[in-house]
């Protein structure tokens, strides 16, 4: 079962095959979680990951076989991340941050504030990059694909992929310095 | 340029495998810190919490079973649901009409028309059956 292509499993899952759905789920759980962690505060990443798979389960019927399954899945990931920030934007006081009135500083309730600030800076930086830069960084770091696998997936030469990757890291450095 | 691309790719591979990377040449040295920052945020080698995975798997299984549970096929068709609802409304109106007609055992006062008690009971039984079917559908 695990050797079946994503698209084949998705087709079976659309037909009601529970085993196929859960094979896809186990195949992508770690990758989705890593992608979510790259953009969402750590303590909320599990909830958003759960939302992603519930959304996948509910909208599986809308998946069209012409598209790659992981492209469709990562679109759902991005939508859930956007929804998270939309919901959070409505809240006036984010739950993970409290105000220390005595010192007049914002402090994290159970996390080191400098660590949270650093993580948020990296997450914002990553989010500010053009999509093709974000994607290659996430494919290597979050999905764990080798540069060879990325080249195959994107139907590009290994040299082109490595060059694109270096440009993406350079862009991230510039964005971090500007932040 | 190719050597710099290769060097950064090797440094990334090493970082993801071992958690650190070899010294980079001058032209890449300022990119090493970016790699470390990304690695620190995404933490690709940190295993998923097993309790979270078990909880999510259970929830998804429940959701899958609920979404794929067999349903009362007849009432799945919208047209039949609408027809059923219309029939229920007609029956209720009929019941109201029948119950509002004066008892035929009373002395007649002017012209009267009515339905027998048997018909009234039949109408009420119809309403009960429709309500029961809807209730069953709701529970499913």
Chain-wise SSE layout:
The complex is a heterodimer of chains A (179) and B (140).
Chain A: H1 6-14, H2 18-37, H3 42-59, H4 69-90, E1 97-100, E2 105-108, H5 113-128, H6 131-141, H7 147-154, H8 158-178
Antiparallel strand pairs in A: 1-2
Helix pairs in contact in A: 1-2, 2-3, 3-4, 6-8, 7-8
Chain B: H1 2-18, H2 29-42, H3 50-67, H4 78-100, H5 117-139
Helix pairs in contact in B: 1-2, 4-5
Can you tell me about this structure?
- Chain A is mainly alpha-helical.
- Chain A is built from eight helices and two strands.
- Chain A has a two-stranded antiparallel sheet with strand order 1-2.
- In chain A, helix 7 crosses helix 8.
- The longest helix of chain A has 22 residues, at 69-90.
- Chain B is built from five helices and no strands.
- Chain B is mainly alpha-helical.
- The chains are: A mainly alpha (179), B mainly alpha (140).
- Chains A and B meet through helix 2, helix 3, helix 5, helix 6 and helix 8 of A and helix 1, helix 2 and helix 3 of B.
Describe the structure using short key phrases.
A: 179 residues; mainly alpha; two-stranded antiparallel ribbon; B: 140 residues; 0% strand
Structural class determined from secondary elements of chain B:
mainly alpha
Order of helices and strands of chain A: HHHHEEHHHH
Q: Calculate Rg of chain A over CA atoms.
A: 19 Å
Alpha-beta classification of chain A: mainly alpha
Can you summarize the main beta sheet of chain A?
A: 2 strands, antiparallel
Low-confidence stretches of chain B: none
* End-to-end gap of chain B: 65 Å
What would you report as the Rg of chain B, rounded to the nearest angstrom? 37 Å
How many beta-strand runs of chain B? 0
Sequence stretches where pLDDT stays below 50 over 5 or more residues of chain A: 92-111
Spatial shape of chain A: globular
* Tally of alpha and pi helices of chain B: 5
Strand order of the largest sheet of chain A: 1-2
Largest interface in this structure:
A-B, 40 and 36 residues
User: Biggest β-sheet of chain B: count, sense, barrel?
Assistant: none
């Amino acid at each position: 079962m695990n050797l079946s292509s994503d698209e084949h499993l998705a087709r079976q899952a659309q037909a009601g095959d529970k085993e196929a759905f859960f094979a896809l789920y186990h195949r992508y759980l770690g990758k989705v979680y890593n992608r979510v962690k790259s953009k969402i505060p750590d303590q909320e990443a599990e909830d958003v990951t759960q939302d992603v798979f519930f959304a996948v389960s509910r909208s599986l019927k809308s998946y069209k076989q012409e598209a790659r399954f992981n492209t469709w899945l990562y679109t759902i990931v991005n939508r859930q991340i956007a929804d998270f920030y939309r919901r959070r934007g409505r809240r006036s006081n984010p739950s993970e941050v409290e105000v220390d009135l005595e010192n007049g500083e914002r402090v994290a309730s159970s996390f080191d504030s400098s660590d949270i600030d650093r993580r948020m800076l990296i997450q914002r930086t990553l989010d500010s990059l053009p999509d093709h830069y974000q994607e290659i960084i996430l494919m290597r770091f979050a999905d764990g694909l080798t540069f060879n696998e990325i080249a195959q997936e994107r139907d590009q030469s290994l040299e082109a992929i490595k060059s694109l990757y270096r440009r993406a890291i350079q862009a991230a450095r510039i964005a971090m310095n500007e932040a | 340029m190719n050597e710099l691309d290769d060097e950064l790719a090797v440094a990334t591979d090493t970082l993801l495998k071992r958690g650190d990377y070899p010294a980079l040449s001058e032209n890449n040295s300022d990119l090493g810190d970016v790699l470390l920052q990304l690695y620190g945020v995404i933490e690709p080698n940190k295993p998923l919490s097993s309790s979270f995975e078990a909880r999510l798997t259970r929830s998804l299984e429940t959701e899958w079973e609920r979404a794929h549970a067999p349903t009362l096929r007849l009432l799945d068709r919208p047209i039949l649901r609408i027809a059923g609802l219309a029939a229920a409304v007609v029956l209720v109106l009929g019941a109201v009409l029948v119950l509002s007609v004066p008892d035929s055992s009373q002395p007649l006062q002017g012209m009267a028309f009515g339905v027998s008690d048997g018909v009234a009971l039949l109408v009420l039984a119809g309403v009960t059956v429709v309500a029961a079917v809807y209730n069953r559908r709701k529970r499913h």
